[in-house]
């Protein structure tokens, strides 16, 4: 699969809805980012294209999808959208400690009235592997197995975000594609995107790579 010219990207001219093109561009921008520095507006644009909706209502890529990124007919990496990660954080240590004490887990509470990290990690691990806990955004009681809301602990699901995994020979593949002139179209589309650093815009997001 190779990324052709395809529809024009969403810069006011109509959004890309061709998965191959969106994957190739996202992968290429991520590869450039790994070599040149901070996440740019180009990264945000190519990421947005991957989760955009096609005219028929389907996403360009959905959660769990994985596609190869190609340049000059050769694969230089993989783009995927992993399942949302369950996020469990202590937002009120005192209330969490009070709950652990009241539930009979005194040995897991340190003398400074803080629940031992190992106990919290055990609660997280059980919840992360429980489909019911993920669905209800609750923890699993270590003694009864019941789904519970624990005071001082917040359970949420982080948004899915596209990721790029470069192939072992990605640099060689892209270099050879460039030498053959096969990278011109992909490079041209990426260069045409604004290169404003993400941090300079109100819509900025964390630079995960």
Question: Which short descriptors sum up this protein?
Answer:
single chain, alpha+beta, two-stranded antiparallel sheet, 7 helices, disordered C terminus
What's the gist of this structure?
This protein has helices spanning 19-36, 41-50, 93-102, 117-128, 131-136, 170-179, 184-191, and strands spanning 66-71, 74-80, 86-90, 139-140, 147-148, 153-157, 163-166. With 209 residues, the protein is α+β, with helices and mostly antiparallel strands. It is elongated, with a radius of gyration of 22 Å.
Describe the structure.
Helix 1 runs antiparallel to helix 2 and helix 1 crosses helix 7. It is built from seven helices and seven strands. The longest helix is centred in the first third of the chain and has 18 residues. The chain has two domains: about 100 residues, no CATH class; about 70 residues, no CATH class. A three-stranded antiparallel sheet has the order 1-2-7. A two-stranded antiparallel ribbon has the order 3-6. It has a two-stranded antiparallel ribbon with strand order 4-5. With about 210 residues, the chain is α+β, with helices and mostly antiparallel strands. The chain is elongated and about 70 Å long.
Could you give the topology of this structure?
Elements: H1 19-36, H2 41-50, E1 66-71, E2 74-80, E3 86-90, H3 93-102, H4 117-128, H5 131-136, E4 139-140, E5 147-148, E6 153-157, E7 163-166, H6 170-179, H7 184-191
Antiparallel strand pairs: 1-2, 2-7, 3-6, 4-5
Helix pairs in contact: 1-2, 1-7
What sequence of helices (H) and strands (E) makes up the elements?
Answer: HHEEEHHHEEEEHH
Query: Which percent range fits the helix content?
Result: 25-40%
Shape: elongated
Structural class: alpha+beta
Q: How would you state the average pLDDT, rounded?
A: 79
* Domain tally: 2
Low-pLDDT stretches? 1-14, 198-209
The neighbouring-strand order within the major sheet is 1-2-7
Termini Cα gap: 24 Å
Give the biggest sheet. Answer: 3 strands, antiparallel
Estimate what percentage of residues fall within beta strands.
5-15%
Total count of strands: 7
